Amino acid sequence: MENNGIIRTTDLTRPLVRFLYAAIILSGAAVVCVCVAPLLWVILSGFKDIREFVRETTILPRKFDFSRYAKTWNDLKFIRYYRNSLFSVLGSVACAVFFNGLLGYALSKIKPAGSNLVFALVMWGLLIPPTTSIVPLFINISRLKLTGSFLPLWLSMGANAFYVVLFKNFFDELSPSLIEAAKIDGGSDFLIFTRIAVPLSKAVIMVIVMYSVNAAWSDFLLPYLILRNSGLETVMVRLFQFRGSRANDVDILRGIVFAVLPPITLFFIFQKQITQVSMQSGLKG
Question: Which residues of 14-37 are buried (b: 16+ CB within 10 A; e: fewer)?
Fold first, then answer.
């Protein structure tokens, strides 16, 4: 008997089950429409000029003029800011995986003296909103003369309590006998982490990569404070600066499309892997 999940094939022969199944499908489709509608409206509005945008109430533009998007792209010089955001994201992802993974492994498997206190502090860190620490963080960055570089953005992503907890919970499930066997063979803790723990942690690493890419790409406040007037501004910082210029509402909508296009594209490309990893790791966003 084929089993498709909570509803079996034979269950679909019952009228009540078919009705509930159809209701679930229709509800899901309605939710998708509600989620996609704002993005679709922004994209279609970008094809309009300011007069059509203000006066017309229709969603569809009169014509699909891609030259308007090209003009906004050139005005914003998005190639440059895409490159800056790419550097910021790559460094942030590397630090998020390495430093948080290293601390999570130490708290899970090495457990040095005071590890319980450190883990308690990490858990307390989850209760502190990130914006409350932005002022002392920026003061310390300024005193260290690290403004105008990506390094503070990378390191801040490498000190994330949520990622540490995810790593620790995953490493807790690793077989202790595997770690002990590696120690008997003379492997150091760092070698065991890099050669054994990390290769076995592809599921949780993929989850961390997903979270960190989204966080690094969409982050605005810290990049704005650190990279302002440095020539290294990210896409979100440039979009805010563009908003404060003489740009009209339609130009800003086109800029928003360019800003959200990369993460949406990545999601469609890797949606199968994202779903598989989330199911395998048992983690929910």
Answer: eeeeeeeeeeeeeeeeeeeeeeee
Q: Which CATH architecture has domain 72-281?
A: Orthogonal Bundle (1.10)
Distance separating alpha carbons of residues 184 and 71, to the nearest angstrom? 64
Half-sphere exposure of 11 (CA within 13 A, CB side): 13
Give me the residues paired with residue 8 across strands.
Answer: 3
What is the rounded (10 degree) CA torsion for 252, 254, 258, 263?
90
- β-sheet bridge partners, residue 240: none
Question: Residue 162 pLDDT > 60, yes or no?
Answer: yes
Q: What are phi and psi of 270, to 5 degrees?
A: -110, 20
Whether 64 and 47 have beta carbons less than 8 Å apart is answered as yes
Instruction: Report how far apart the first and last C-alpha atoms of the chain are (Å, whole number).
Output: 33
Taking alpha carbons only, the member of 162, 80, 172 closest to residue 128 is: 162
Report the predicted TM-score, pTM, of the whole model to 2 decimal places: 0.78
Q: Where are the domains of the chain?
A: 10-69, 72-281
Reduced to 3 states (helix: H, G, I; strand: E, B; else coil), residue 49 is coil
Q: Is pLDDT of 285 > 70?
A: no
- Alpha-carbon span 53 to 61, nearest angstrom: 9
Q: Find out whether 235 and 21 touch, Cβ atoms under 8 Å.
A: no
Q: With the CA atoms of 213, 214, 218 and 221 taken in that order, what torsion angle do they form, in degrees rounded to the nearest 10?
A: -70
pLDDT tens digits for 203-235?
A: 888 888 888 888 899 888 889 889 888 888 888
Contact status, residue 220 vs residue 230, Cβ threshold 8 Å: no
